[in-house]
Amino acid sequence: QVQLVESGGGSVQAGGSLRLSCAASGRTFVLYAMGWFREAPGKEREFVAAISRNGGNTGYADSVKGRFTVSRDNAKNTVYLQMNSLKPEDTAVYYCAARSELTLISYRIKGEEYAYWGQGTQVTVSS
Fold first, then answer.
1. pLDDT at 11 > cutoff 90
2. Secondary-structure percent of the chain, ordered helix, strand, coil, rounded to 5
3. How far is residue 45's CA from residue 94's CA, in Å, rounded to a whole number?
4. Distance of CA 97 to the CA centre of its chain
5. Beta bridge partners of 51
6. By three-state DSSP, how is residue 106 classified?
7. How far apart are CA 107 and CA 32, in angstroms?
8. Contact, 40 vs 91, CB < 8 A?
9. Which residues, in sequence order, are CB contacts of 108 under 8 Å at separation 6+?
10. What is the rounded CA–CA span in Å between residue 122 and residue 94?
11. Phi, psi (deg, nearest 5) at residue 3
């Protein structure tokens, strides 16, 4: 099992930046592909970004491509989401998720494929 704790959320104005962090417990972080998802009020949870075990492969939702960057530091058991050029529509609770993955290069974009979730961190972008 792995426990996930997100941090770094907050309130910013449109055009600003935030970096979210997700710290994982345990010694087996390198065995997990990681994903970021978000849920806005009244909306379903949606995929934001994902990264493979070795960090070599990443994927993004079209709505965040070119603005968000996912990365990981396996030595620190942490995955990051750098969010630039934030827009009011990025306002949501952001969750990180982990999935035990057999291959080094795979990642997933469906929330139901992830077994472990953090508690979420609120991001609010004002216009």
1. yes
2. 5, 50, 45
3. 9
4. 7
5. 34, 58
6. coil
7. 9
8. yes
9. 33, 35, 50, 99, 101, 114
10. 6
11. -110, 140
Residues for the chain: how many in total? 127
- Which phi and psi angles does 4 have, rounded to 5°? -120, 135
Which candidate, 61, 67, 39, places its Cα nearest to that of 49? 61
Strand 78-83 relative to strand 68-73: parallel, antiparallel, unpaired? antiparallel
pLDDT digits (tens, 9 = 90+) for 74-103: 999 999 999 999 999 999 999 999 999 999
pLDDT digits (tens, 9 = 90+) for 15-33: 999 999 999 997 799 999 9
Given a contact cutoff of 8 angstroms between Cβ atoms, the answer to whether 110 and 47 are in contact is yes
Kindly give the residue spans of alpha helices, DSSP state H, lying in the chain.
none
